[in-house]
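ARCHIVE CARD
CATEGORY: sequence design from structure
SOURCE FIELD: tokenized fold
FIELD CONTENT:
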């Protein structure tokens, strides 16, 4: 995507050459010592090069072709005048300086490119040595000292503390830690602990307080299913998990900054903010004019289960969507307190991956969440992840009774956290998910989008091109196969006759040249992509400003896939974490994605002018239905319908 060197770089070289040449020549005419002549040459060359770089790569020059023509014509005329003066009065030709400079301008980028290739080769070799062909999924080389550090717990402070790192909120004073140029406030509670009598109850607001606490360690992850490829199995878990994390620049300003709030991925039964892939310090360190927030919420049977048909279950009406209520509570806390950290409560952008993205879609249609965010960036998650009726969630509750050998809610409440976690691990395939209950969440979210339920929110929808292998790496081969075969069976139940025939013909053709698992995995990937496309379409029909992004990046290791993991790392700048997940970051893609994301957060036009990112071509990211395609080679904006489905009629069936 990035050019090694450009015509603009050559123009800058012309002026730099003039500076080097005149600096040295004039110094020699004055009879100055050799070292002084060299210093004058170097100083004037850098000065003029810096000035002309700012001019050549400025938005005003790069935005329109005519501006570039005028600028570079002027530069060439300056060069001709300088050449005439130097030959006429100094007896020196600037052409010699220019030729030397051009060699260095071309040579240095090539040398830098070669060095970067060597670094990338070394990192790739190291990853391939650890992962092999990637057939065993994610393998984390986690050291004991890292586990010990991440499992430390915050404490209340009763004596002196660092006032420069302290922030007072309505619910307490929190003293953060410094990481490079960033202050991080970790493990801040945003609601009362949902334990004891509050288990399976809606989150309750914290009382006002002046107590002082450490905020240097992550809060516990939610109780969750531990998949083979989950790094969070090394992190402590607790029902007391309703905490959030805030990263800000250590340099304080009076200007209120846009806020990015991350909804972590998973399958509504796993995940959390302690995953290094989701850290916000690198993002803020690179973009100090932003505030980053992430938070945990209840998962699995603690966050999404319908007890209404169980004896005593009527006392727990909110259990069906507790995880979503937690998310709303977290956003409410952010809205109320983020100004104390330098954030603008009226400029909140939510960012979600997988189940986090699906959650954002549901909240966008939720009246109770109205006004809590203005912009939404969702990657690989849509309302299709939610149940369309409470039936499945009620069945899960009955299965929980059988697994735990209990008969009433009172008996369930007597069970320990460990007993419930063990039951959840066995019931994983029953699936926990939010429910479109018609109360908190509209019964038909897609229709609600079309009717304008999400009005006032701008969206970016990210669609991955190779995600199913990522699921395999996380869940393990057997669980992945069971999930794929189950998803295909469920999907075929809802198809009309013509679509079902087209799908079966596709599966037969694909199975003839590959395995049945690969064929069905491809079908599931197309279906999920089209569900994202459908959500974007309905929002667009409802009047929302919607942009599509298609992640078309080739995976480093084919069996690990390329999608949510790579996109999350690239957007947040977490290069080291990505290596843990078996890939190497493309820094050009990361810089491009971050630049466009910042424009989105700030309400700017989603376009890049030429050389806004050095060596990257201009691109105008037009709204839905066209999509910005991110790939290794280039950026382009075009239709992606033919990229996300190979089955005739499936697009019409899903998007209707």
């Amino acid at each position: 995507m990035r050019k090694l060197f450009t015509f603009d770089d050559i123009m800058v070289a012309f002026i730099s050459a003039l500076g080097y040449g005149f600096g040295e020549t004039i110094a020699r005419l004055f009879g100055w010592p050799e070292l002084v002549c060299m210093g004058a040459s170097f100083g004037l060359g850098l000065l003029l090069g810096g000035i002309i770089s700012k001019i050549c790569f400025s938005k005003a020059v790069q935005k329109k072709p005519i501006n570039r023509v005028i600028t570079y014509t002027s530069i060439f005329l300056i060069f001709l005048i300088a050449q005439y003066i130097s030959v006429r009065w100094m007896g020196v030709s600037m052409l010699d300086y220019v030729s030397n400079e051009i060699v260095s301008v071309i040579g240095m980028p090539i040398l830098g490119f070669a060095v970067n290739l060597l670094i990338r080769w070394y990192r790739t070799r190291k990853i391939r040595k650890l992962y092999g062909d990637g057939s065993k999924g994610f393998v984390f080389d986690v050291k004991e000292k890292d586990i010990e550090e991440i499992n430390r717990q915050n404490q209340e402070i009763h004596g002196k503390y660092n006032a420069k790192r302290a922030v007072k909120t309505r619910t307490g004073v929190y003293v953060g830690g410094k990481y490079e140029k960033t202050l991080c406030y970790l493990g801040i509670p945003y609601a009362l602990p949902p334990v004891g009598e509050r288990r399976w109850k809606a989150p309750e607001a914290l009382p006002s307080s002046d107590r002082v606490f450490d905020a240097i360690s992550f809060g516990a992850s939610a109780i969750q299913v531990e998949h083979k490829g989950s790094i969070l199995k090394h992190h402590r878990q607790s029902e007391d998990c309703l905490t959030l994390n805030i990263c800000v620049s250590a340099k304080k300003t009076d200007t209120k900054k846009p806020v990015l709030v991350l909804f972590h991925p998973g399958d509504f039964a796993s995940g959390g903010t302690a995953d290094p892939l989701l850290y916000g310090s690198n993002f803020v360190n690179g973009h100090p004019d932003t505030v980053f927030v992430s938070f945990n919420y209840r998962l699995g049977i603690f966050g999404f289960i319908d007890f209404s048909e169980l004896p005593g279950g009527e006392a727990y009406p909110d259990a069906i969507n507790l995880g979503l209520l937690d998310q709303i509570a977290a956003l409410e806390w952010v809205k109320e307190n983020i100004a104390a950290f330098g954030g603008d409560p009226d400029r909140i952008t939510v960012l979600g991956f997988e189940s986090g993205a699906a959650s954002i879609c549901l909240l966008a249609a939720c009246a109770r969440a109205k006004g809590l965010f203005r912009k939404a960036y969702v990657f690989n998650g849509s309302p299709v992840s939610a149940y369309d009726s409470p039936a499945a969630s009620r069945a899960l509750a009955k299965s929980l009774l059988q697994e735990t050998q209990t008969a009433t809610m009172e008996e369930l409440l007597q069970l320990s956290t460990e007993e419930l976690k063990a039951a959840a691990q066995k019931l994983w395939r029953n699936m926990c998910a939010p429910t479109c209950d018609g109360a908190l969440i509209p019964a038909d979210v897609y229709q609600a989008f079309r009717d304008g339920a999400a009005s006032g929110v701008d969206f970016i929808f990210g669609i991955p091109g190779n995600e199913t292998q990522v699921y395999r790496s996380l869940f393990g081969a057997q669980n992945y196969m069971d999930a794929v075969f189950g998803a295909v069976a469920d999907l075929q139940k809802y198809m009309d006759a013509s679509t079902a025939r087209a799908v079966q013909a596709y599966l037969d053709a694909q199975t003839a040249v590959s395995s049945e698992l690969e064929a069905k995995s491809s079908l599931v990937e197309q279906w999920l992509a089209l569900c994202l496309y459908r959500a974007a379409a309905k929002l667009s029909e409802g009047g929302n400003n919607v942009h599509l992004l298609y992640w078309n990046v080739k995976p480093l290791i084919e069996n690990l896939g390329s999608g949510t993991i790579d996109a999350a790392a690239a957007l947040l700048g977490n290069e080291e974490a990505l290596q843990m997940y078996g890939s190497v970051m493309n820094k050009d893609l990361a810089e491009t994605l971050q630049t466009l994301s910042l424009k989105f957060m700030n309400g700017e036009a989603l376009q890049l002018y030429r050389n806004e990112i050095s060596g990257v071509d201009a691109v105008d990211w037009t709204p839905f239905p066209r999509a910005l395609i991110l790939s290794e080679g280039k950026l382009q904006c075009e239709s992606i319908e033919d990229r996300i489905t190979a089955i005739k009629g499936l697009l019409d069936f899903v998007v209707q």
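CARD ANNOTATION: Residues 94-131 form the longest helix (38 residues). The CA atoms of residues 42 and 517 lie 63 Å apart.
SHELF: design records, drawer C
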